[in-house]
Amino acid sequence: MKNVPVLIVGAGPIGLALAGDLGEHGVSSLLIERTDGAITQAKMDMVGIRTMEYCRRWGIVPWVHAAGYNRDYPQDCAWVTSLTGHELGREPFAPVRDEARPPQSPEKRERCPQNFFDPVLRRFAERSGHAELRYRTQLISLEEREGAVLARVANVDTGEEETIECRYLVGTDGGASTVRKSVGIPMIGPDALTYTTNVIFRCDGLEALHDKKPAYRYIFIGKQGTWATLVAINGRDQWRFSLIGDASKRQYTEPELREAIVQAVGIPFDFEILSVLPWVRRQLVAERYSTRRVFIAGDAAHLTSPTGGFGMNTGIQDAVNLSWKLAATLQGWGGEHLLATYDHEQRPIGVRNVTESTGNLKRMLAPRVKEPPAELFDDSEAGDRARKAFGDAYTDAMKREWFSIGIHLGYVYEGSPIVVPDGTSCPEDTVSTYTQTARPGSRAPHAWLGEGQSTLDLFGKTFVLLRFGAQAPSGQGLIEAAGRAGVPLTMHLIENDEAARLYETALVLVRPDGQVCWRGNVEPAEASEIIDVVRGAHAAVGGEREAA
Ligand SMILES: Cc1cc2nc3c(=O)[nH]c(=O)nc-3n(C[C@H](O)[C@H](O)[C@H](O)COP(=O)(O)OP(=O)(O)OC[C@H]3O[C@@H](n4cnc5c(N)ncnc54)[C@H](O)[C@@H]3O)c2cc1C
After folding, report:
1. Which burial class, exposed, middle or buried, applies to 487 when counting CB atoms under 10 A from its CB (0-12, 13-18, 19+)?
2. For ligand 1, is residue 45 a contact (CB within 6 Å)?
3. Which of 39, 209, 239, 434 places its Cα 20 to 30 Å from the Cα of 10?
4. For 476-528, how does the pLDDT look when each residue is reduced to its tens digit (9 = 90+)?
5. Reported pTM
6. Residue with CA at minimum distance from ligand 1 atom 2
7. Spatial distance between the Cα atoms of 138 and 34, rounded to a whole number of angstroms
8. In the chain, helix, strand, coil percent, each to 5?
9. Rg of the chain over CA atoms, in angstroms?
10. Three-state DSSP class for 248?
11. From CA 501, how far away is CA 131, in angstroms rounded?
């Protein structure tokens, strides 16, 4: 029987990122995927700023840039009655290549649809030398035992079955997760939000068919309200049309879809349909993210409306949060409660992010609730006035979706049992703004340390103790305590005023995932206690979770 430390089920972006990050920690994994990995319908296309910070850590940012999206394509979002009709408003954005980095990060978000991003992550996972990738292999069932998990897998082509034993199994197998169902974890949330149909079509020179400035996304507003969107999916000749639909299930024929696309453009034109994907928009979060040895991450754990682009990006955070905890446990320096903190830390972030996405959906669909004024569609001065009033209000309301740095970077592991609080109160959870803080539980702040070197470049593989200035306490107690517990810890002396200002205290301890877990101004008397807390040796996360 094949025996592996970690079996990952599902090689979408989350499974691939997890395999790669485990590899960075020197942990071997087997990643199985039932398809051949080819993506015919890119779902996700916005790689968020935190995910790009992880890509920087992994040294793969140039691969993302070169993955295939046309980084010179304008990224405006515009709302129109049709492409040949009236424009109601627009949020201008520079092409990805020209977009400025925000001051809080050494990176910026990227446009890299899944058909380009998955191969980048696959290359990353393979580069690690620790991940075995097996495509056309499907999980059939699993059995969790006291010391191991037994997984029954099948070769999709031959039907040949095999049992694989692993210490831990992670289900990154998407919304219909076999892993989640096998361990009996229910999803919690409302019924389907919409039954939507996506069509990827090819059309060379769509821009020349109309008079609107190019945009990455058009939102179509008709007499019935918001009814469709169109996205420049490769910034060249491919477009993704979404017929948004509503909560009632509906299947469309190809002629119906063609008619809808022509209606959105406003004139008949030639195009080739490449693929059609009916999908259900949901707001669901798993009741738990783990049992004792089985974990779920990504869409297996949370399903969200894509409005905002949080789905995959939240899932990549799951992978990074779980990865070092699995590594620590397998390598023997993680405490017995460490793995249970994955659910405790990541699940609230899942709830927060799917809730925000549904809010974005409601704002986008608001013209359905309060129908647009009839004059909006008239070629008259009254129509111009109506369009200005409607467009300005819609543009204003939609800003929250377009500017969401707070969601991507401002998540906090508040109340985590492996974070030592410093007594300060939690900053307000904002969406469109983000103030960096080194308060324990937060993402460790970015500051430039020198030409092209960010504080973030110090994090990833070990715990990191930052000492701000030669006058700072030596941190020797923490270094020795970590050594006694076998916890990998690296110390960096930082002599940089901006970094010292952002981090606020003389000593700051950062976890391998880049989150602050302790800070202080004096040599801690209870260094061993701190190390035991942050490695999950100290306290149970909660009776119920532990018993699971
Ligand atoms: C229209 C749309 C636009 C979106 N845009 C964005 C965006 O801009 N940004 C963003 O962050 N998110 C976006 N999302 C969400 C994003 O696509 C998902 O969150 C993301 O794909 C989830 O990745 P995953 O790896 O968890 O799951 P998936 O991508 O679903 O991958 C799961 C994998 O598991 C495999 N699998 C399933 N069952 C088994 C089994 N039994 N054995 C073996 N393999 C199995 C599947 O074949 C699949 O390859 C969007 C979603 C949609 C629908």
Report:
1. buried
2. yes
3. 239
4. 999 999 999 999 999 999 999 999 999 999 999 999 999 999 999 999 999 99
5. 0.97
6. 43
7. 5
8. 35, 25, 45
9. 24
10. coil
11. 40
